Amino acid sequence: MMNHLFSEDSIAVDTHVLRVLRRLELVADTTAEQAADTINSITPAKYKRHAHEWLIQLGMQVCHARSPDCRSCSVSMLCSTGRSNS
User: Fold this and answer.
1) Which domain does 72 fall in, by range?
2) Is residue 72 within 8 Å of residue 62, measured between CB atoms?
3) What's the whole-number mean pLDDT along residues 6-34?
4) Which burial class, exposed, middle or buried, applies to 84 when counting CB atoms under 10 A from its CB (0-12, 13-18, 19+)?
5) How far apart are CA 82 and CA 75, in angstroms?
6) Contact, 11 vs 29, CB < 8 A?
7) Measured distance CA(73)–CA(86) in Å, rounded
8) For the whole model, what pTM was predicted?
């Protein structure tokens, strides 16, 4: 939302994004707020707007909580769940 309303490049973390970030072992944080702080601190500004949108779509369409579609995932080789499900 911040990306669109205020033209502020940031990665917002919802349940879908948090799941993806945890599976990729990019964050070990327990809350979405902590994960947002972590991922925004390590992601270069020029990638944040698109990373935010990509992570949301990946989490909603491919990286489902109960039955992720790892065979369709473009980053499954980076993910322990993806490696074990492929």
Assistant:
1) 2-85
2) yes
3) 90
4) exposed
5) 8
6) no
7) 10
8) 0.86
